[in-house]
Amino acid sequence: MDTPLDKLTEEFRRLPGIGVKTARKLAYYIVQQPASRVDEFVDAIRDAKANMHFCSVCFNLSSQDPCPICSDISRDRSTICVVETPQDVQAIERSGDYHGLYHVLHGALSPLDGVNVEDLRIRELLQRLGNTTVKEVILATDPDVEGEATALYLARLIKTAGIRVTRIARGLPMGGDIEYADEATLAGAVANRQEM
């Protein structure tokens, strides 16, 4: 028979990236906290679930609609960066170097996993491009098979509208060693080299 601790462990284990040992560690941590701390944790989960929604413009997660990025009139409206997930938006924003708008696809093309064109926010992207004066679309999908396939598909569609399409550069991470890099990373680094 499952104990309440076992049930809690199983719920943590359902979270992405959480294995059995980490789930058990989190479950033990929670049950050892004061009831008030557990209530705060549960309230934070309920509040996030109730108040976070997808922006009607870019489909990023936000507590307001349109989201703060789409609402910010100081952003460069001539550029849209297309990403797979809301987490990708946050990662690019942390860099502090991009000041345009975003469009979140909510995945990448993966027919083997049942993810097709109609499962992503591609139709909304194309509608958005048709209703704006966007001059450049930056494709910032992951550099894996699915991300590359998605980027190629989108590039073909967007170029027919006469909009400039660029792809984020790939290469070695800062502090990485060339001798330990895989062939695909090295090929991307050489292909995307920059003038100094």
TrEMBL record:
Keywords: DNA damage, DNA recombination, DNA repair, Metal-binding, Zinc, Zinc-finger
Toprim domain location: 78-173
This protein's record includes keyword DNA damage: yes
Stored SUPFAM superfamilies: Recombination protein RecR
Keyword presence, NAD: no
Coiled coil: none
Single GO molecular function: DNA binding
Gene Ontology BP annotations: DNA recombination; DNA repair
Pfam families: RecR_C, RecR_HhH, RecR_ZnF, Toprim_4
SMART domains, per database record: TOPRIM
UniProt zinc finger (C4-type) residues: 55-70
Family note: Belongs to the RecR family.
Function: May play a role in DNA repair. It seems to be involved in an RecBC-independent recombinational process of DNA repair. It may act with RecF and RecO.
Name this protein carries in UniProt: Recombination protein RecR
